[in-house]
Design brief:
The structure holds three protein chains of three kinds.
Chain A (H helix, E strand, L loop, with lengths): L3 H28 L7 H17 L9 H24 L16 H12 L9 H4 L2 H31 L11 H27 L9 E4 L5 E4 L4 H10 L20 H26 L4 H23 L16 H12 L14 H13 L8 H18 L7 E2 L2 E2 L2 H27 L2 H4 L6 H15 L14 H30 L16 H16 L3 H6 L1 H6 L7
Antiparallel strand pairs in A: 1-2, 3-4
Chain B lengths: L2 H26 L3 H4 L3 H18 L13 H40 L3 E10 L5 E9 L8 E4 L9 E5 L2 E4 L1 H4 L5 E3 L4 E2 L4 E4 L2 E5 L7 H9 L8 H30 L6 H11 L2 H20 L2 E3 L2 H8 L3 E5 H5 E12 L5 H11 L6 H12 L13 E4 L7 E6 L12 H5 L7 E2 L11 E6 L1 H5 L9 H10 L3 E7 L2 E12 L3 H10 L3 E5 L4 H11 L3 E3 L4 H13 L4 E5 L5 H6 L2 E5 L4 H6 L2 E3 L7 H24 L1 H12 L19 H22 L8 H35 L2
Parallel strand pairs in B: 11-19, 11-21, 13-15, 19-20, 21-22, 22-23
Antiparallel strand pairs in B: 1-2, 1-3, 3-9, 4-7, 4-9, 5-6, 5-8, 10-23, 12-18, 13-14, 14-16, 16-17, 17-18
Helix pairs in contact in B: 1-4, 3-4, 3-8, 4-6, 4-9, 4-24, 7-8, 8-23, 8-24, 9-22, 9-24, 10-22, 12-13, 22-25, 23-24, 23-25, 24-25
Chain C lengths: L10 H34 L1 H4 L3 E4 L2 E5 L25 E3 H6 L1 H8 L3 H10 L12 E3 H11 L10
Antiparallel strand pairs in C: 1-2, 3-4
The chains are: A mainly alpha, B alpha+beta, C mainly alpha.
Chain lengths: ~550, ~725, ~160
């Protein structure tokens, strides 16, 4: 239970996030508009035109969904490859003042696929493993591009849902959406945020670690580096991969409460803005469609918070004194709700109910979910919900005036069942192959929670984990790498395919003849359906893990 | 046979037929090969086989199943069997119901020997004679000519080309009164000629008649899944796949983590989580929709048509015959100055005496009801009439001197109307004697020409009547204008309410009429329709359907004439009247046997109810899972005492699984009546329908199983005592 | 607007464009961006940018916000289990609980120690509601106020 001050903090952070998101949304929508973007263009267009020319991008080319997806997956694959190469050869490359050796292949593979899939599962402690170049070119670079990819995909999906009446450009051009995401949204916002972080005490330096002799005469390395520039995008882009192994618990990554609040608001910002962007891009008449999605997402977020804040939030071991006991709980719920995955306390320090709540965020992936993809997931849930309950209005289920057909359901259900598959099967495999006992994990509920969390986090592209560098084994590196890319790109492919067919589909009258998807009622039904169909499905597994820990009365059992 | 007696006999027959057949059919349907088309139930049957093996060979599945639990396995196996059987039972019941429909339809289609006319070989006299050849109705082809005599059954759909006869269509429509059919009218296969002889041209090839199409539809083996059923089936397969992943992972983890979960309990959880309720009832819901429509005497050619009817956005309604009773009716006599209402009414009565049109009759009816009977009527035999002609646009009565006295004290006069031998006069050249009286009525502008003087208020009254959307008929006696009769379109009873019902469901009614815009507007306003097409030509209907479809609205329309066929064909839902032409019926995807155009609304309702029932049972089925998790998961991990806290229902450790399974099985037969009857439905907006169903089947679906499982658990505890 | 099916676009072209875009983004996001931020930060906020190094007698002894090991009974000790392992702060209660030990080993009056603590409290205004103090700061105040006691540590 929380006190008055904490309630005020909670409400203000969420309101600030909502308010800023609402203010940002029209700008974001405008960025991807194919009509004149006025002043924006005067600043950015020349830069972008140069980029298009350099890369041979035909910016007027309209891509149908297969091409959009192919362009996206190829680009992401190549970028992951760059990251992989930099990691492996970091010792032979510049900017390695600490002289770290090259990263082992499986960890490099895991890291490249982890960051490129916006997961940022970290089986390494950055400050002891990665050179400055790796931090910048293998990690930070992919944190920008995976966020840009998420945004581009969401915009393409929105264009499909909005249909040809709202724009003649199909799903758009992936390269253009990707470049604009970087030039007009992510780079400018990160630029400002990074400088604020420096001001608040986050280092930004390319000089090596500073050796000092402490007061008691011991040798200490003050591990600085290009931290602020990374922290800004890792939060804004819901990446979560920290500069340090301890992530945002490390004082240099999160020096004060002010930086903590800024990091929270940064990770909430774009995911919260996306439903507004959706409404904006659907057009005036359908603006409320975004609101009902946002209401459902935040209602689920509130349930997560209520569960997590039910136990005491006193400060305990594994938490940072400057944040107290409440901030880690609020952070953990938030970081899983937007699938960022950064942490500001050790997960094992938290009450099992907080972990239950974290699981919920990662299972749903849309409360409001990761950058771009959170909305995409929510739209998948919307289709499934409309289909299940829509019939009860006495009409064939329809969304935005479009009948939901056999192909839509086929795809949505496929995208939907991928998640339990890539969470549960690898969890079983980890035990069956004894990969768990190899790193000292037993069969108890604590170990089980840690393994289940590992794959849930990987599948949800969240990235927070219990195991950390303990999971730096070939099995965990390779299995989670596969899970992360599957969990990232299969649902994206599915939703792009649906959006592609929706783009040119005829739309019937949306005069309230069917289920009103922009109503509060629908938001509630969506909320309930997600709880029953998505979360409850994992009930037996949660019962064997964190829920069991809670029932056993453990305050922080992990 | 008296129709009522026949009905009773049939019912008894059917009941006997059903009990044994349904049971046998339900068992036959357990065949896994047949069941595979219902993936959910197929999976349940598979699990039954597994648990049955466990019960029979308790050691076979060690260590995931324990020999000591043999009785329990047998119980679980039995319940799994029940679950599957309840599902096949519901199928069998619905099929039997549909079978009855098919049977009664088939009765109409049963092969009869038709008298086919063939051009004979050259006769002995050298002339080509027509000969009649007895041909089975199944061999008749489109274009064949048949002769149908008294007591013959019409072999298949045909069009009268010669003769007039009375036809009994009671088998089709339930309407016992015979109808008169003449050249150009349509005959439905299965109806019966009760008088006279007809020559008719066959309009369909065998197997093409809509009755045949209907039979095909209700016979399940030939019934394709509708798109909506397909999508729902995919959703159910998806859910099944998810639960399969979950249960298999649980099984694997149970082994790896040493949880000792019993396989049969896991299977119980699996089956309880599967959407068995909707899986079991989905086919029945679809079939019963067809049966429900047929109960309203509407024949659908496809299941898809019924669902589409539920989605209709726009309904095109013909004014005449659908919205109004068909003809205008006199409602008021408005005398000109210097004349009384009685004077006008009596003159109108006489003027209409020879007028056999519905309008004419309504004038007489009105005068009679108001008590204005013309006492000066001298003689029925002394009357002669001016017939309506397109040139004069007037009609009337000529009374000559010396008629017999006539006392119209009873209503008999009305029956005699039209009977007297009529002598038609040329209205253009009235042959008036001094004592003779001429009473003429007609369109005001046509009447004006022949008047001696035109009263000052002639135009103003006429205008006020027509601006109200009504029709004015002027009446004159011996060229002296007496007044105006107001004729009004009369709405069918309950039409306003039905239009309101449509509008409450956000369906836009469009009225199609040949009337002048002013008249059309008045009727439209009266009945509550906002959109109408006045002075419509047949092709306007087609154009309007296209127009609506271009706005991506789902259009329903009604038609009977051949010129309606194109519009019927492109409309999403086309309801043809049984009395209509063969072309119309061919183009439509539904046929109303009773030829009542307003029944398109019934079709919409049945469609909506069908979709709602499907959604309600699906939602209920999925919402049920909440309680089932809480019933089974705590006892599934019996080795972990801390998890007993999740046993919020406080179920018995040994009975919880059985209780959940029993609930899961028993809910199927309990919902069969709902599946067959459909969820209760009153026209309302989509959102209020949705809300009502979401509360009943969604929220109810979450809580009912908690109560149900707890009650069963208490009962089991008492019975088994363990 | 150029219309064209996916089939008409060679996968090779996608790969080529992708490669160029990948390299360019790596340069912009991975090098240019952090280098520019570093430049600005080093010029405008060198203290923060370089990790808030604290100097004693001109020698760097650590970072103001990174815990360093204090094991001598003369000093306040940091926590040894915290998430980052370098948590620079301890709660007020933890600080007070160390007062008697420091008093015994240094003979600095308890009241003075308590006064030092209370004058250096940092309130967790927004989030935690738990007052805390920085260990390094307390110890540096001690060294400043009682140079003779801590002379061994000032090199």
């Amino acid at each position: 239970m929380i006190g008055l001050i904490q309630s005020v903090v909670l409400v203000s952070v969420l309101s600030a996030g909502l308010l800023l998101a609402r203010m940002l949304a029209p700008y974001i929508a405008n960025v991807y508009s194919y009509e004149s973007r006025g002043r924006q263009d005067r600043l950015f267009l020349p830069i972008e035109t140069a980029i298009y020319r350099l890369c041979g991008i035909k910016q007027d080319r309209v891509m149908e969904w297969k091409e959009y997806f192919t362009a996206m997956i190829v680009l992401n694959g190549l970028m992951a490859l760059i990251s992989f190469i930099v990691l492996i050869f970091q010792n032979s490359l510049p900017l390695d003042p600490q002289g770290f050796p090259g990263v082992r292949w499986d960890l490099a593979l895991n890291t490249a696929m982890s960051i490129s899939s916006n997961t940022n599962l970290q089986h390494y402690a950055g400050e002891n493993t990665l050179s400055y170049l790796s931090q910048m070119v293998a990690i930070q670079f992919l944190q920008f591009t995976s966020a840009a990819t998420g945004l581009a995909v969401a915009i393409a999906v929105i264009r499909g849902f909005a249909g040809k009446a709202r724009g003649k450009q199909g799903l758009g051009n992936f390269y253009v959406d990707f470049v604009r995401s970087l030039t007009r949204i992510l780079l400018p916002l990160s630029f400002v945020a990074a400088l604020v972080f420096v001001y608040l005490g986050v280092p930004q330096s390319l000089n090596g670690y500073t050796p000092v002799t402490t007061i008691q005469g011991a040798q200490q390395l003050i591990k600085i580096g290009p931290v602020a520039s990374l922290v800004s995008i890792m939060q804004l882009g819901t990446n979560g991969g920290g500069y340090y192994g301890a992530n945002s618990a490390y004082p240099f990554q999160n020096p004060s409460q002010a930086s903590d609040l800024l990091e929270m608001i940064l990770m909430l910002l774009i995911p919260t803005a996306m439903p507004f962007v959706y409404g904006e891009m659907l057009g005036k008449k359908s603006r409320k469609e975004g609101i009902s999605i946002l209401v459902a997402a935040y209602a689920l977020f509130m349930v997560d918070l209520a569960i997590a804040l039910y136990p005491s939030t006193a400060i305990g071991p594994g938490m940072e004194v400057r944040f107290g006991g409440f901030a880690p709980v609020f952070w953990t719920v938030t970081t899983t709700a937007v699938t960022t995955g950064s942490v500001n306390a050790a997960l094992s320090a938290l009450n099992p109910l907080v972990i239950v709540s974290a699981f919920m965020g990662m299972l749903i992936q849309a409360t409001p979910g990761g950058i771009g993809v959170g909305l995409v997931y929510m739209l998948m849930y919307v289709l499934i919900t409309v289909f299940i309950v829509g019939l009860m209005s006495g009409r064939t289920p329809e969304y935005l005036g479009m009948k939901i057909g056999v192909r839509d359901i086929k795809l949505a259900v496929f995208g939907f069942l991928i998640h339990p598959f890539i969470v549960l099967v690898p969890t079983f495999m980890a035990y069956a192959t004894r990969a768990t006992s190899a790193i000292g994990l037993g069969t108890g509920s604590i170990s089980f929670t840690e393994v289940l969390y590992e794959f849930t986090s990987a599948a949800a592209n969240n990235g927070s984990d219990f195991l950390g560098s303990a999971a730096n084994t070939v099995f965990f590196n390779v299995s989670t790498a596969i899970v992360m890319w599957t969990g990232r790109f299969v649902p994206i492919a599915v939703m792009l395919a649906i959006a592609g067919s929706m783009y040119s589909r005829d739309r019937g009258p949306t005069n309230g003849a069917g289920l009103k998807t922009d109503s509060l009622t629908f938001a509630l039904v969506l909320f309930a359906t997600i709880l029953i169909v998505v979360v409850l499905t994992f009930f037996p597994f949660l019962a064997l893990g964190p829920l069991l820990e809670f029932l056993r009365g453990h305050v922080n059992g992990f | 046979m008296d129709p009522e007696t026949r009905g009773q006999g049939e019912m008894e027959d059917e009941e006997r037929w059903q009990l044994s057949t349904v049971l046998r059919d339900s068992v036959l349907r357990l065949n896994p090969v047949r069941l595979i088309s219902n993936p959910v139930m197929f999976v349940v049957e598979l699990t039954f086989f597994i648990v049955a093996v466990m019960a029979t060979f308790p050691g076979a599945f060690y260590p995931v199943a324990h020999a000591s639990e043999q009785t329990f396995y047998a119980e679980v196996a039995f319940l799994l069997f029940l679950t599957v059987w309840f599902s096949t039972l519901s199928d069998a019941l619905a099929e039997a119901q549909a079978g009855n429909t098919a049977k009664s339809l088939r009765k109409l289609e049963s092969t009869v020997m038709a008298k086919k006319i063939v051009a004979g070989q050259k006769g002995k006299g050298g002339t080509a004679a027509e000969t009649v050849v007895l041909t089975p109705s199944t061999e008749l082809c489109k274009g064949d000519i048949v002769i149908i005599e008294k007591n013959d059954v019409v072999p298949t759909d045909a069009e009268v080309i010669e003769g007039i006869a009375m036809i009994d269509e009671s088998l089709l429509t339930g309407e016992s009164a015979a109808v008169r059919k003449a050249s150009g009218d349509t005959l439905i296969g299965g109806s019966k000629v009760v008088s006279d002889v007809l020559k008719a041209r066959i309009t369909v090839n065998p197997e093409e008649s809509f009755i045949n199409q209907m039979i095909k539809l209700v016979e399940s083996s030939k019934r394709p899944k509708t798109p909506n059923e397909q999508a729902l089936t995919i959703m159910l397969i998806g859910l099944t796949a998810i639960f399969t992943i979950i249960v298999l992972s649980l099984l694997g983890l149970s082994i790896e983590l040493g949880l000792g979960v019993d396989l049969s309990v896991l299977i119980a959880l699996y089956v309880c989580l599967l959407p068995t309720t909707i899986g079991a009832l989905l086919p029945a819901i679809g079939i019963s929709g067809i049966s429900r429509l047929y109960a309203r005497k509407i024949v659908a050619k496809s299941g898809r048509a019924i669902e589409t009817a539920g989605d209709v956005d726009t309904i095109m309604l013909d004014k005449t015959g659908t919205i109004t009773v068909g003809n205008r009716r006199a409602v008021q006599f408005i005398p000109f100055e210097g004349h009384t209402e009685r004077e006008l009414a009596e003159a109108s009565f006489l003027a209409s005496w020879g007028d056999d049109t519905p309008e004419g009759r309504s004038i007489i009816d009105l005068a009679y009801q108001m008590g204005f009977l013309p006492h000066e009527v001298r003689s029925l035999s002394g009357l002669s009439y001016y017939e309506f002609s397109a040139v004069s646009r007037t009609s009337g009565t000529h009374m000559s001197e010396g008629s017999q006295s006539f006392h119209p004290k009873s209503g008999k006069i009305l029956e005699q109307r039209g009977r007297p031998k009529r002598k038609f006069l040329d209205a253009e050249k009235p042959d008036l004697k001094i004592d003779d009286t001429d009473i003429i009525k007609g369109a005001p502008d046509a009447m004006k020409a022949g008047m001696n003087s035109i009263p000052a208020e002639f135009d103003s009254i006429t205008n006020s009547v027509s601006s109200a959307g009504d029709t004015a008929i002027a009446v004159a006696r011996n060229r002296e204008a007496l007044g105006i009769i107001r004729l009004k379109d009369v709405l069918k009873t309950g039409m306003r309410e039905r239009i309101n019902a449509l509008k409450s469901m956000s369906i836009k009614p469009i009225m199609i009429t040949g009337d002048h815009p002013v008249t059309a507007k008045s009727i439209a306003r009266e009945v509550g329709i906002d959109d109408f097409v006045p002075q419509a030509k047949p092709e306007d209907k087609y154009r309007k359907v296209i127009e609506e479809r271009d706005q991506h609205r789902i259009v329903a329309m009604i038609g009977d004439g051949s010129n309606d066929a194109p519009a019927l064909a492109i409309a999403d839902v086309g309801l043809a009247m049984n009395s209509g032409t063969a072309a119309a019926k061919e183009a439509a995807n539904m046929v109303d046997l009773e030829s009542d155009p307003s029944k398109i609304i019934d079709a919409v309702m049945v469609g909506k109810q069908l979709l709602m029932t499907r959604g309600a049972v699906t939602t209920f089925s999925i919402a049920n899972d909440v309680a089932k998790y809480f019933a089974i998961v705590p006892v599934m991990f019996a080795t972990i005492p801390a998890l007993h806290a999740l046993n919020i229902l406080n179920l018995g450790v040994h009975t919880a699984v059985l209780s959940a399974l029993i609930f899961n099985a028993i809910v199927i037969p309990l919902l069969i009546p709902l599946a067959m009857r459909g969820v209760s439905f009153r026209p309302a907006s989509a959102m209020s329908l949705f809300l009502k169903n979401a509360v009943t089947y969604g929220i109810g679906g979450v809580f009912i199983p908690f109560a149900g499982i707890k009650l069963i658990d208490i009962a089991l505890g008492l019975i088994i005592g363990r | 607007m150029i219309e064209g099916g996916f089939e008409t676009v060679k996968l090779k072209e996608i790969a080529l464009t992708g490669a160029r875009l990948a390299i360019l983004s790596a340069l912009v996001c991975g090098l240019v961006f952090p280098v520019v931020i570093t430049g600005i930060a080093q010029i405008a906020m060198p203290y923060q940018a370089n990790g808030q190094i604290v100097y004693v007698n001109g020698k760097p002894i650590g970072s103001a916000i990174i815990a360093q090991s204090f094991t001598s009974p003369l000093f306040f000790h940091p926590r040894n289990n915290s998430a980052s392992g370098v948590d620079p702060d301890i709660t007020l209660n933890s600080a007070y609980s160390q007062v008697s030990r420091i008093n015994v080993s240094t003979h600095i009056p308890v009241a003075s120690l308590k006064a030092i603590i209370s004058s250096n409290v940092m309130w967790t205004y927004w989030i935690a509601g738990t007052p805390y103090v920085s260990v390094l700061k307390l110890n540096m105040v001690l060294m400043e106020k009682y140079p003779q006691i801590y002379s061994a540590f000032v090199s």
